[in-house]
């Protein structure tokens, strides 16, 4: 019989057990092993059956067992201790509160992301972007950073993956009932659920309620459009993560950005939480948040340009992808319709909105609205997610700052990190605790003091090797269980599956490869030369075994074909004990997989992996990385603790097939000649000494770097604090002043010119240490010297006379204007390096409220004729 209505009946806990409910609703349990142990002891069997989810556990425990626990003095003591510990954690001072200039730090930061991966029990993520957002919130909580997370609650989350008999990906969309998730509904004082509402074209509206997930100290607000007041179409807006067509995506992003700001306002009003001074958008999807804030300011009598300045000052934009297909672009018309006069943000002219998303650079599509471009225009501060990705992003977006070298494009980088308490296996944590104590191990993992990590040096080889064996063995067990479930699902009967007991060997070198399956990640590179792979897997003395997992986007048939290719290879009875594909890669699997592997393999097409984080999680468990020098590995790789797969980007990059051949062959060589021998070679004590040394170096050298705590501190120091200062300086009169000044400068700029440059010595050779004096005449049109900086830029030049590592020195105004309105500037030019050297002069706008002199994308340089003149550019 099918029920006509469905409820969730919540358990009634005996009074003495009430703290359990608070512990279950604060997601800190997801990174706090002690709290999880407590829940496990409530009912070990049901704990396992509820997939380690405390809310589900409490819904399933029998009243008899609860009554028993309510009388169990030992349990009650542990419960009280855990509740106390959580209270201390949530209310005590942490890193942020102990900063000397803490009053200068933002009172609150709103962090927007389309997905959050916090725990498998709250499946609201698809991959790296979401997990990163989850790790960001958790690390912020550990550090006491006053973040408010903002996202959407998807009724089906992302999809669950199984395989058909012949290895084709199948997608399933289980319904998630928010009442069964670790969430509570945000309510008004009178108890009615709070709502936000967006106007849609055609006199329709999109309403959403707000769920609250408590992530340690950090509240996470999740908007849910599945409310009865909505029409069926609007109810479905938050149905799936990254599903649906263009309009569906646009509505999701409008709800996230615009509705998200409204949800934050509601939350602050109801709870008294400080209002955010900084808004951080994790990728462009939430970019409409800037428009909503401009709209808010229109009620404070700021016109669009002034409001834009006010909003930019407090906005941080993080870009996550160098793959153009990874950027959201909408049809201009579609955007125009949703921001038209009968839709949202009626006080902003739609033309102004459209301009923000215009691809105004060569090759840009005039009919598309680009969310990343808008993100860059709405935020005064922007960053990529590794050094290399920062570099690639500056190149990629340099068209928005014409006249500037890519190096000067105002996009910095903060390299991603991972939340160690979430990703370090309990066994690894315990080894650390044995060595230096539990508290210091926790500190090492959250704040990242590198001297704490040095203690790894003292751990005996034997202990490290035993730990690695334990972790590998646990993985083997896990893999067999998952493989068994998968084969049953694929239609196999018990009698056919005896071979699974022999899958993987706890003493064989184990390689992991798990990630989403966009083509640039090259899931099947390892299959390039199947004979060589067979030799590696079946090597008589030094075999390797490989565990593979990953989901392809439901619309990506190419990705599904790659999965099928891999599955078919792994199904082959000759190798199926040495290579497996596990369906449904997610956080629960990942937490077992990373620790159990000896090698974490990553072979993306360089430089398309913006950062990558799975290798960091593996490293924290003593797994060694074998990877293309892309993302974070390009930055931190050292031969002491891992291997770099040589790449054929650059010249060979034009021929993709050839490139794959070269890189796959390099991968096989490394595995065969370096990795496997090192793993199997035993020293005098019977241990693989050199391997263990690499594990040790991985932990001591990478441990403190790869932490999300390190990442969040960098965000605070390099982006949030400056953004908060800029926000505070930008009161309404400053915002108006800056907007007026910018428009005046833009209008005047065509008449800003470098007219004449002369040096004291017009020689073509010069000696190191010589100082020459520069005299420059410039035209400023309607501007005055206060509006500009005239700079001498000098440095090494390449064969095309381009200055490669220039330093800029401001010149001083020395009189003027002359009769033609020209100003004289002077200054010294010191020849401070040998070899080919050159200089040039340029004029930039300058204002105390700018974050970078490239901000306006305006620069005046000498004309061609002037460059040709002798003495201007020396070689
Ligand atoms: C860490 C993680 C990712 C991201 O890994 P990348 O190295 O960035 O590809 C994806 N999915 C899960 C489940 C993860 O834990």
From TrEMBL:
According to UniProt, the name of this protein is: glycogen phosphorylase
Pfam families per UniProt: DUF3417, Phosphorylase
Catalyzed reactions per annotation:
[(1->4)-alpha-D-glucosyl](n) + phosphate = [(1->4)-alpha-D-glucosyl](n-1) + alpha-D-glucose 1-phosphate
Q: Does the keyword Glycosyltransferase apply?
A: yes
Gene name, per UniProt, is: glgP
Say which family it is in. Answer: Belongs to the glycogen phosphorylase family.
Source organism per entry reads Streptomyces xiangluensis
InterPro entries, from UniProt? Answer: Agluc_phsphrylas, Glyco_trans_35, Glycogen/Maltodextrin_Phosph, Glycogen_phosphorylase_DUF3417, Pyridoxal_P_attach_site
Domain DUF3417, which positions?
A: 13-122
């Amino acid at each position: 019989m099918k029920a006509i209505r469905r409820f969730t009946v919540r358990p009634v806990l005996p009074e003495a057990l009430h703290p359990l409910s608070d512990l279950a609703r604060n997601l800190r349990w997801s990174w706090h092993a002690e709290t999880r142990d407590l829940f496990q002891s409530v009912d070990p069997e049901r704990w396992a059956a509820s997939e380690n989810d405390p809310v589900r556990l409490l819904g399933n425990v029998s009243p008899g067992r609860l009554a028993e626990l309510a009388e169990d003095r030992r349990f009650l003591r542990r419960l009280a201790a855990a509740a106390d510990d959580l209270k201390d954690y949530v209310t005590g001072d942490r890193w942020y509160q102990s900063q000397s200039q803490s009053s200068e730090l933002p009172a609150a930061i709103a962090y927007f992301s389309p997905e959050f991966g916090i725990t498998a029990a709250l499946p609201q993520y698809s991959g790296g972007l979401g997990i990163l957002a989850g790790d960001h919130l958790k690390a912020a909580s550990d550090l006491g950073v006053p973040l408010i997370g903002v996202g959407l609650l998807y009724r089906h989350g992302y999809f669950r993956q199984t395989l058909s008999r012949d290895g084709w990906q199948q997608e399933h969309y289980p319904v998630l009932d928010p009442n069964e998730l670790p969430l509570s509904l945000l309510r008004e004082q009178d108890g009615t659920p709070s709502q936000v509402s967006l106007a849609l074209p055609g006199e329709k509206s999109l309403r959403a309620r707000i769920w609250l997930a408590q992530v340690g100290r950090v509240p996470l607000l999740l908007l849910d459009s599945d409310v009865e007041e909505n029409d069926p179409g609007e109810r479905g807006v938050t149905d799936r993560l990254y599903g649906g067509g263009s309009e569906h995506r646009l509505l999701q992003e409008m709800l996230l950005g615009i509705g998200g700001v409204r949800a934050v306002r509601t939350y602050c009003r109801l709870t008294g939480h400080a209002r955010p001074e900084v808004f951080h958008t994790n990728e462009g999807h939430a970019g409409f948040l800037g428009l909503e804030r401009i709209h808010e300011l229109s009620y404070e009598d700021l016109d669009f340009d002034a409001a834009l300045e006010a909003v930019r000052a407090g906005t941080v934009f993080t870009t996550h992808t160098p793959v153009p297909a990874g950027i959201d672009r909408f049809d201009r018309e579609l955007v125009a319709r949703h921001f038209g006069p009968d839709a949202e943000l009626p006080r902003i002219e739609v033309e102004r909105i459209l301009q923000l998303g215009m691809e105004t650079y060569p090759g840009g599509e005039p009919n598309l609205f680009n969310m990343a471009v808008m993100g860059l225009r709405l935020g005064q501060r922007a960053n990529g997610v590794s050094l290399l990705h920062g570099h690639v992003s500056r190149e990629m977006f340099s068209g928005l700052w014409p006249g500037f070298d890519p190096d000067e494009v105002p996009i910095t980088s903060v390299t991603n990190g991972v939340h160690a308490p979430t990703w370090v296996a309990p066994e690894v944590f315990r080894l650390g605790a044995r060595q230096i104590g539990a508290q210091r191990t926790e500190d090492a993992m959250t704040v990242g003091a590198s001297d704490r990590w040095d203690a790894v040096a003292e751990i005996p080889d034997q202990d490290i090797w035993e730990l690695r064996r334990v972790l590998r063995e646990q993985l083997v067990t896990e893999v067999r269980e998952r493989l068994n479930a998968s084969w049953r699902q694929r239609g196999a009967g018990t009698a056919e599956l005896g071979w699974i007991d022999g899958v993987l060997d706890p003493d064989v070198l184990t390689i992991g490869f798990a990630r989403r399956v966009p083509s640039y990640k090259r899931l099947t590179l390892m299959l390039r030369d199947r004979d060589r792979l067979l030799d590696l897997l079946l090597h008589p003395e030094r075999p390797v075994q490989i565990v593979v997992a990953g989901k392809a986007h439901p619309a990506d048939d190419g990705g599904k074909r790659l999965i099928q290719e891999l599955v078919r290879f792994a199904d082959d009875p000759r190798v199926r004990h040495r290579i497996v594909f596990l369906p449904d890669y997610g956080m629960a699997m990942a937490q077992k997989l990373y620790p159990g592997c000896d090698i974490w393999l990553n072979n993306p097409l360089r430089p398309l992996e913006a950062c990558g984080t799975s290798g960091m999680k593996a490293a924290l468990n003593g797994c060694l990385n074998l990877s293309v020098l892309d993302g974070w590995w390009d930055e931190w790789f050292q031969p002491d603790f891992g291997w770099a797969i040589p790449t054929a980007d650059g010249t060979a990059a034009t021929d993709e097939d050839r490139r794959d051949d070269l890189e796959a062959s390099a991968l096989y060589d490394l595995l065969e000649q370096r990795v496997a021998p090192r793993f199997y070679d035993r020293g005098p004590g019977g241990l693989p000494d050199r391997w263990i040394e690499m594990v040790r170096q991985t932990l001591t050298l990478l441990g403190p770097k790869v932490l999300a705590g390190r990442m969040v501190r960098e965000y605070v120091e390099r982006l949030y604090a400056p953004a908060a200062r800029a926000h505070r300086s930008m009161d309404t009169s400053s915002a108006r002043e800056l907007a007026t000044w910018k428009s005046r400068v833009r209008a005047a700029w065509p008449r800003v010119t470098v007219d004449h440059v002369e040096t004291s010595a017009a020689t073509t050779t010069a000696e190191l240490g010589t100082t020459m004096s520069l005299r420059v005449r410039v035209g400023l049109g309607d501007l005055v010297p206060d509006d500009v900086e005239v700079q001498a830029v000098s440095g090494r030049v390449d064969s095309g006379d381009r200055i490669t590592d220039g330093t800029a020195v401001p010149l001083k105004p020395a009189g003027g204007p002359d009769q033609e309105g020209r100003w004289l500037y002077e200054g010294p030019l010191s020849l401070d390096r040998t070899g080919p050297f050159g200089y040039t002069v340029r004029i930039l706008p300058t204002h105390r409220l700018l974050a970078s002199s490239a901000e306006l994308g305006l620069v005046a340089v000498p004309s061609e004729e002037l460059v040709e003149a002798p003495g201007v550019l020396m070689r």
